[in-house]
Design goal:
Length: about 700
């Protein structure tokens, strides 16, 4: 439309290079953005001192720390103290080099965890767009940990294969050795090189070859075969027992063979054989129960104890339970359940029923078997026939029951020593306590001599001592003493007990209290002696003195006196006395001037007046009436007894006795004292009449 313009002028320029450069720049920027903002590396810019000037956004995803938290802070704050020296040395090195690769170091993340990083430093201090040191870092923690695991695995493998107690070998399908571990030299004395190319069965015992070949053939269908122990030859041509596991690794390109892992178990096998021999001798069996409670295994000894045949008895837990005596089954199952849980040890004695319905006692001991993870997988233990022991135990219980419940005292002592302090007591029964008043704990560990005292028969005890030294049984009757001090007569038999070798180990004494029987015998003897005394002498004083002696010796009294009323009956006079020991003599010497008493005075006068037996002890209110109490105290006299001597209910005299014993210990003489009242009274009256008649006959001729 413009007349001045006659056409269109086009001016074109080739800008291909420019467009391509812009596209490359765009791709470069996108790549940089992907690397810096979304990559797996952390890119930072630090100055020469290590202070952060820039941190890529990836720090948030990799370290959990946003970039802005790094700015202005020094890299050493995040570096592990042990790695700091190496990091600083690399930083110093970059000032003179363009590029430096740091050794792996630990860097702290937002969880305060130490992560391993590898870093490359690039010196771009002179680049106006950067003006710093660019650090490109990558988290290699997983890589480091894998390398450590691999190193440990390699070290373990080396320890196992080269230095361990196992043999590791690789054989082909024909049994020829392809590889043998260096440990063969130490274990069997044959170097690895000597095995290569040779057949494994050259080293196997001929008797075991067939089953080892059978195990090898199993690998055609199985990946792993555990072989039963077999014998293999070492460098000394000795046969050693070996336990082996075969692993089929023919398809593994790194192996291309069968891996043989073997261990020498000779000591274990020999120990097992010894244990089996010992078990057979001791009749001890071994059992094992898998915790499914149905897989049960027994040794031959267990079958023997149970009276079962291995060929015919179907062994499982259910059938085993049926053999236990019904009365013992509830407790057995309860205790076994607690043992399975590890709460109590398995230690049971119970009855089993044999095929012929006989009863047998067994003792089981067991323990839990756990795997490497601590999980219980089985229960194993031993069992022993204890029928004989149980019968003996029951017999001993019966004997114990007899000993415990018998009325005779039973005492058991050690066999020696014979000299002081004598054999020690190790057992007494209840009857002993009842008889002596001593509780078991008061005498166990002491000598039976604690029962002896001043009136024990020394001659008989000497004979007993000689019999003990000759290891002979002996019977003795003597006076013993209770805990209270009371005397009692005892008859006992002592018997030596020997062990299975004939060596005497103990003495058993069976004791019986014969006080009543012995007292009656002695009382009868005393009454006869009293009668003979009055028949033997015409002198009344002599007769009465002998009478005092017999009574004092009979009851072990310290003194005895006879008091007779005067003719005028106004006084009672001491006409005879006897002192057995120092105490009696001391009392007599202190009161020998006391020759008569009036009616009611002192004990003789008191008994004369009241016409009844009196027993006064020091501390009783009547003791105040005793005229010689001070003398008695000095002499040690504790009790005095006054016995009225009667004839036709008339008091014709008083018997006075004194002793250092307690009142309680005199109870055994109560019956005797009653007899003495009349027997002495009768004999005394007869003797007085005899003397009077004799005097009459003496004076008759003079009168005529």
């Amino acid at each position: 439309d413009n007349p001045a313009v006659k056409g269109i002028v086009a001016n074109s320029r080739d800008i291909t290079d420019k467009i391509e450069q812009e596209e490359k720049l765009l791709q470069s920027e996108q790549r940089f953005k992907a690397l810096i903002q979304e990559g797996s590396d952390v890119v930072v810019i630090i100055d020469a001192e290590g202070t952060y000037k820039y941190v890529s956004p990836t720090s948030t995803s990799i370290l959990g720390i946003p970039p802005e938290e790094f700015l202005g802070r020094n890299a050493t704050e995040f570096t592990h103290p042990e790695d700091l020296e190496g990091a600083l040395a690399s930083l110093l090195k970059i000032t003179s080099e363009n590029r430096v690769k740091l050794e792996p170091f630990r860097f702290q993340n937002h969880k305060k965890e130490w992560r391993w990083f590898e870093t490359i430093l690039t010196n771009m201090i002179d680049n106006p767009a950067v003006r710093g040191i660019v650090a490109n870092s990558r988290d290699i923690t997983d890589k480091i940990e894998q390398e450590e695991k691999l190193l440990q695995s390699e070290q373990r493998f080396k320890a196992l294969v080269q230095e361990g107690y196992d043999l590791f070998a690789i054989i082909d399908t024909e049994g020829k050795y392809i590889y043998m571990s260096p440990s063969s030299t130490a274990i069997i004395g044959i170097s690895p090189e000597e095995f290569i190319g040779r057949n494994a069965f050259e080293f196997v015992h001929p008797d075991d070859t067939e089953r080892t070949i059978a195990s090898l053939k199993k690998l055609a269908t199985e990946d792993r075969v555990i072989m039963a122990p077999y014998r293999a030859k070492n460098h000394k041509n000795e046969w050693r027992w070996v336990e082996t596991v075969l692993s089929n690794m023919l398809d593994n390109p790194a192996v291309k063979g069968i891996v043989v892992n073997s261990r020498d178990v000779t000591d274990k096998i020999e120990e097992k054989h010894k244990l089996k021999s010992v078990s057979a001798i001791a009749n001890i069996g071994y059992w094992r129960l898998e915790l499914d409670r149905d897989t049960l295994s027994w040794t031959d000894e267990v079958y023997t104890i149970w009276g079962r045949q291995k060929e015919s008895f179907k062994l499982n837990y259910e059938n085993f339970i049926k053999t236990i005596h019904p009365a013992d089954l509830p407790l057995f199952e309860k205790d076994q359940e607690l043992a399975y849980q590890g709460l109590i040890p398995h230690n049971q004695i119970h009855r089993i029923i044999l095929p012929d319905n006989q009863i047998r006692w067994v003792h089981e001991l067991g323990r839990l078997v756990k795997d490497e993870d601590g999980k219980s997988i089985a229960f194993e233990g031993t069992v022993q026939d204890v029928t004989k022991q149980k019968a003996e135990e029951q017999r001993l219980k019966l004997l114990e029951s007899v000993i415990t419940n018998t009325t005779d005292a039973v005492l058991i002592t050690e066999a020696e020593p014979f000299d002081e302090p004598g054999p020690r007591i190790i057992y007494v029964n209840a009857a002993f306590t009842k008889m002596t008043g001593y509780e078991a704990h008061e005498v166990i560990g002491k000598s039976p001599r604690i029962l002896q005292g001043p009136n024990s028969n020394k001659e008989e005890l000497a004979k007993l001592g000689q019999a003990l030294r000759n290891w002979e049984p002996y019977e003795i009757t003597t006076t013993n003493y209770k805990k209270s001090g009371e005397e009692f007569w005892i008859n006992f038999t002592v018997i030596p007990v020997a062990d299975e070798k004939g060596w005497y180990t103990h003495w058993i004494a069976v004791e019986r209290d014969v006080t009543e029987q012995k007292t009656k015998e002695r009382e009868k003897d005393l009454i006869n002696k009293i009668s003979n005394i009055f028949n033997q002498s015409s002198d009344l004083t002599v007769s009465l003195t002998k009478l005092c002696e017999q009574i004092a010796k009979f009851g072990y009294f310290d003194f005895a006196e006879i008091w007779l009323p005067a003719i005028d009956a106004n006084t009672i006079n001491r006409v005879a006395n006897y002192f057995k020991n120092t105490a009696g003599n001391d009392l007599y010497e202190a009161s020998k001037n006391l020759k008569f008493l009036v009616l009611g005075e002192g004990m003789p006068g008191y008994v004369w007046e009241n016409k009844q037996t009196e027993i006064w002890g020091d501390g009783d209110k009547e003791w105040l009436f005793f005229k010689r109490k001070e003398a008695a105290k000095k002499a040690g006299i504790e009790v005095v007894i006054g016995v009225p001597l009667k004839q036709n209910k008339v008091i014709i005299g008083v018997l006075l006795l004194g002793t250092k014993k307690t009142k309680a210990s005199l109870a055994q003489y109560s019956a005797l004292l009653k007899k003495l009242k009349t027997s002495i009274g009768t004999e005394l009256s007869r003797k007085k009449l005899e003397i009077e008649l004799a005097q009459i006959f003496d004076f008759t001729p003079d009168i005529i």
